[in-house]
Amino acid sequence: MKNYFYISFIILLSVLGSGQAAANVQLENLRCEMLQNPEGIDVTTPRLSWEITGKQRNIEQTAYQVLVASTPEKLAANEGDLWNSGKVNASQSVHVQYAGKRLNSRDECYWKVKTWTSNGESSWSAPAYWSMGLLHYGDWVGRWIGMDKLSPWDQEERFSRLSARYFRKEFEAPKEIKKAKVYIIGLGLYELYLNGQRIGDQVLAPAPTDYSENVKYNTFDVTKQLKSGKNAIGTVLGNGRFYTMRQYKAYKNKTFGYPKMLLNLVIEYTDGTTEKIRTDESWKVTADGPIRTNNEYDGEEYDARKEMPGWNAVGFDAGKWLQAEYVQEPTGEFEAQMNEHMKVMETLKPVSVKQLKPGTYIVDMGQNMVGWLKMKVQGKSGDKVTFRFAEVLNEKGEVALENVRDAKVTDVYTLKGGGEEVWEPSFVFHGFRYVEVSGFPGKATVNNFDGQVVYDAMQTVGSFKTSNSIINQVYENSYWGIRGNYKGMPLDCPQRNERQPWLGDRPTIAYGESFIFDNGKLYAKWLDDIQYAQKADGSIPDVAPAFWRYYSDNMTWAGTYLMVADMLHQQYGNVKPIEKHYPSMKKWLQYMQNLYMDENYIMTKDSYGDWCAPPATIEDGRGMNANVKYPSKLISTAYHYYYLQMMQRFARLTGNEGDMAGYQALAEKVRAGFNDEFFNAEGAFYGENKLTDNLLALYFGLVPEEQKGALVNTIVQIIEVENKGHLSTGVVGTQWIMRSLTDFGRPDLAYKLATNTTYPSWGYMVANGATTIWELWNGNTAAPTMNSYNHVMMLGDLVSWYYEDLAGIKSSREQTGFKLIEMKPLLVDGLDFVNASYHSMYGLIKSDWKKEKKRFTWKISVPANTKAIVYIPASSEKNVTEGGKKTSSATGVKFLRMEGDRAVYELGSGDYNFVAK
């Protein structure tokens, strides 16, 4: 049973002063690390969190009390029959673990909280809620149903075509209904209806997993949709990753059979009785509906002439439908989906619709996006409109499809005729900016189409803007690329016949992503995916869930397992993932050491090297296939050392202190072996003097102390002279380049890399029309075989550098999750202002600084129940004011020391306005 998610809900709480005027303090934004609607969780000891806000400064929580009740009435009467924490003298306001009565399947929990702060005692918050799901296999009733065969119009070959399955059942609810909930596992994807109404606004549900290991169920409260008397429930099952996109390479692609479903509808009547509607042989099924095929790579075809009006409502004649078959259940464990659903998160209008030739249009969305096209059309029965999706156009203005490989990326809609028709697909998504629309009856305009932007419904928690337009556009491109590749797992790309959760794309990038999106739930789920994919001997795959059977054994890809767990602790203060996964991490490290570490402590196995390093010039890369591996013992050994340092910290955090000495001793041997093997003391470089090799040695702490300065000079020489002011790193080196240059005294050079517009650089992508991040630095000249225009792996540590170094929003390593905030923004020539914010677990952090000739202004917001250490550029404390006052008389401001050209202060919570001269 998982135990590392926390639950929190939006509530408001006013705090009353103790013997003083009422203080304006509130509790709010108690979010939920699971579904946005907290129905059906399977964590029996959930953790509760709340935010405290207020206008005054120095708000610190001193105590709290939580009540959890089984009914709203008991909670209103202050009866915590499930849990009454009592007054707990503690400042903890996040990850407060439920410690009440044992929670059982389908329990409903109503809770509220009050706090005591430095500003007084609060009243009780408004109530919040969560419910428990079906915690045990035995709680599920009924049987798995499906249709384990092809229809005559289906085909099972390389480009398989499998139509959607439609299920329905009518039933009687003979009494007055008190409450009703549906628990559904619909594989691969489902849509759920009750009495003709769509249940929920989720799409492409449930989240994908390796279905042989685990399957996700979703819970919905359907009390409002159910009625006494006759009712009808209907579902549509799509293929998703269950009936996989390519059936013809069984040695590579995992497939799990035909779509299938298990559903329980639990009805509670007002007389206290309960009834369960289950999936069984009484259900009816047909595949002869309008969705004729649905394949994530190839698209969806919909024939509106095959629509069945009222199929999901009472009274429909299903006489020609088949009896549902009992089918083999998947072998994976049943788990509640604790990460967010995918949803349509934004709608874009095309910027243009141009006729390419008679009957064919090019729709330009103006933005490389992920989702699908929604259409309004009017024509005669049998008219077919065909959509082909692409990221770029060729020289003729046609959609360029070479880079999607053998993916057909084609949707087809056949009209029924008789009036305006509106259609969008149900079980596919596309990565695209351009759409070729052919067969459209009449004249197509921008009013006929909407781009539906689809990704996991996580909160956007960051904002970022600077005085530099290149940085701003790269940030915008990052935003679009990151969210587009959130699909219940972090994908590498959304357009070609791949779309896989490669571990090597996300080790550091996930950290930067967390400043923009509340991605903690997604990445906690992904750690589970990785653990499920681990072999008994400890081997971890390159892709997880392991839809592809790639177990190449390397440190850089598989080690993402450790780095993502570390990110969740650093950014969210969440140690539970480390606790849960520590044994599996330890097993993996031992596996690699046993098989691939030689007698000199060199890790001899690497698979990819510095993947996708840029060709020397843009012309050198013209037509080049980037799918070339350059394994590197230096890289694998450097990462081994880095992970040994990380495992020491994990051992301490998880109570495995006995492991620390072993990790430390081995790390010292690896460090010595690394320098013996790879360090050229005379030339002050490592390995072949590649930029990535030197960066890893420097950032990971492998270089001897007395040689650090010389190595920094070597790195600068490579960038400034050999590369003419550019980077030369691939996916590995780019993860460390910005922080290395900044931490070791050359933030100016990092800024130059961030603002370059010549090849290779992020700005070069922008200058060449990119609206997302390319897979390759030379994406505009490389061979199309491996050339995605929406890949996040080349972001490296850029986004985290934006927030932590340019904006100065960083969590302390000692008090993680932004309990203690470190704010030390970079001031580099050419950058005049940065205005950024990040909504942490404790609340909103703001950093809005501006520099003028002899004046530096900095507006700062520090959340309640936290502190910040801020570094203000000033020659003396006397030259700094806050709110027009000397800092010595400003509330919440404590001068600590002068550190070089910075005055260092400790701030309590509140809003501040500093001016330094």
TrEMBL record:
Superkingdom, taxonomy of origin: Bacteria
Residues annotated as domain Bacterial alpha-L-rhamnosidase N-terminal: 175-346
GO molecular function, one term: alpha-L-rhamnosidase activity
UniProt keyword annotation of Membrane present: no
Reactions listed under catalytic activity: Hydrolysis of terminal non-reducing alpha-L-rhamnose residues in alpha-L-rhamnosides
Matches recorded under InterPro entries: 6-hairpin_glycosidase_sf, 6hp_glycosidase-like_sf, Alpha_rhamnosid, Bac_rhamnosid6H, Bac_rhamnosid_C, Bac_rhamnosid_N, Galactose-bd-like_sf, Ig-like_fold
One Pfam short name: Bac_rhamnosid_C
Keywords of this entry: Hydrolase, Signal
EC identifiers of the protein: 3.2.1.40
UniProt domain Alpha-L-rhamnosidase concanavalin-like: residue ranges: 355-455
PANTHER family xrefs: ALPHA-RHAMNOSIDASE (EUROFUNG), ALPHA-RHAMNOSIDASE (EUROFUNG)-RELATED
Protein name, UniProt field: alpha-L-rhamnosidase
Organism: Pontibacter qinzhouensis
Lineage: Bacteria, Pseudomonadati, Bacteroidota, Cytophagia, Cytophagales
